[in-house]
């Protein structure tokens, strides 16, 4: 006997006949758009898929657990079992990473004059794996800098787990290695996962020195060719950007490939500051809040906005400005 037929009433189907017709019309319209777009890029090799954000988020989660098994990996076993836990997380994270890097290389191969080596994704993953201990050391220094720089912090564990700046910089340290190894799309997706979670936008190409601290962090933007030295501290809404979007003006090699600021060692940049172009902020300098900078700053400088003024009110004359000196 065959399986009984299940009858579905029209009321049980949420898609009406009219809506179904509209869906089919849109399916056909989308097919035409895809066909037109692909015809305009006839030299492209169609790839099976693009790197997946969900898989890369899981990869970073697994790798973070390997870097910090007890704090980020929820490992609660005996010390003799810790290495096995770490090894399992590394294998899982690298396997996920390798799959997404292979997808990126399949995409780029359509643009390349020659096919890639079959084991290129494996090579990138192998070289990346060799940096894990260095990544752990770099992240430790960033967390320590945050602990020293924020009196509200109660422990380094709180910073590692909770602070948006520490989370964004941890993701950046991972993404930057992958960017340098030739997987820019995978790296960019990882940086955008951190951006979505923290509101901190760090391009994976940015070079950031040790002991880096972003306090509060929401709205921070750091461009691709920015270079940041050691022991630098940024506050929220700081922008290290370029002077103008590419394509809107004639650019030479310097403007194209070195278009973001250089921040030397021991610089502090307060909230809302905007620094644009290939300018250098000299070591030991302090940039005040809401400052707009397009020029180099000498070492050990302090750059601030004009002092704010208090508007005092008098019934006869209305508001007038009073300087904000000592004693006001």
Word description of this protein:
- With 328 residues, this protein is of the alpha/beta class.
- It has 9 helices and 16 strands.
- It has helices spanning 17-39, 53-67, 82-109, 120-129, 132-149, 156-162, 164-180, 184-198, 253-257, and strands at 201-202, 207-208, 213-214, 221-222, 227-228, 233-234, 239-241, 262-263, 268-269, 274-276, 280-281, 286-287, 292-293, 302-303, 309-314, 318-323.
- Strands 1-4-7-10-13 form a 5-stranded parallel β-sheet. The protein has a 5-stranded parallel β-sheet with strand order 3-6-9-12-14.
- A hairpin with a 3-residue loop joins strand 15 (309-314) and strand 16.
- The longest helix is centred in the first third of the chain and has 28 residues, at 82-109.
- It is globular, with a radius of gyration of 26 Å.
- It starts with 16 loop residues before the first helix and ends in a 5-residue tail after the last strand.
- Residues 4-11 have low confidence and may be disordered.
């Amino acid at each position: 006997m065959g399986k009984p037929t299940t009858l579905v009433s029209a009321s049980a189907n949420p898609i009406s006949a009219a809506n179904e017709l509209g869906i089919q019309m849109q399916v056909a319209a989308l097919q035409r758009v895809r066909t037109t777009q692909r015809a305009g890029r006839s030299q492209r090799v169609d790839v099976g898929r693009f790197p997946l954000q969900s898989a890369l988020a899981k990869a970073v989660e697994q790798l973070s657990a390997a870097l910090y098994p007890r704090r980020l990996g929820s490992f609660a076993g005996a010390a003799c079992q810790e290495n096995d836990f770490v090894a399992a997380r590394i294998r899982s994270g690298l396997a996920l990473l390798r799959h997404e890097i292979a997808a990126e290389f399949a995409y780029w191969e359509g643009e390349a004059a020659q096919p890639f080596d079959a084991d290129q994704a494996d090579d990138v993953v192998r070289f990346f794996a060799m940096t894990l201990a260095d990544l752990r050391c770099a992240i430790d220094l960033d967390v320590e800098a945050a602990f020293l720089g924020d009196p509200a912090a109660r422990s380094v564990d709180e910073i590692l787990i909770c602070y948006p700046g520490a989370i964004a910089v941890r993701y950046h340290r991972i993404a930057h290695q992958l960017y340098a190894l030739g997987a820019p799309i995978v790296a960019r997706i990882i940086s955008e996962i951190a951006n979505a979670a923290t509101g901190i936008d760090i391009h994976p190409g940015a070079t950031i020195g040790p002991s880096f601290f972003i306090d509060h962090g929401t709205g921070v933007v750091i461009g691709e060719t920015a270079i940041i030295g050691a022991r630098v501290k940024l506050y929220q809404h700081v922008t290290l950007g370029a002077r103008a979007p590419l394509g809107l003006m004639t650019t030479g090699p310097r403007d194209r490939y070195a278009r973001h600021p250089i921040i030397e060692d021991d610089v502090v940049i307060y909230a809302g500051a905007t620094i644009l172009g290939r300018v250098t902020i000299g070591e030991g300098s302090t940039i005040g809040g809401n400052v707009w900078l397009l020029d180099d700053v000498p070492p050990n400088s302090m750059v601030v906005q004009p002092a704010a003024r208090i508007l005092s009110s008098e019934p006869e004359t209305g508001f007038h400005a009073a300087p904000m000196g000592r004693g006001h």
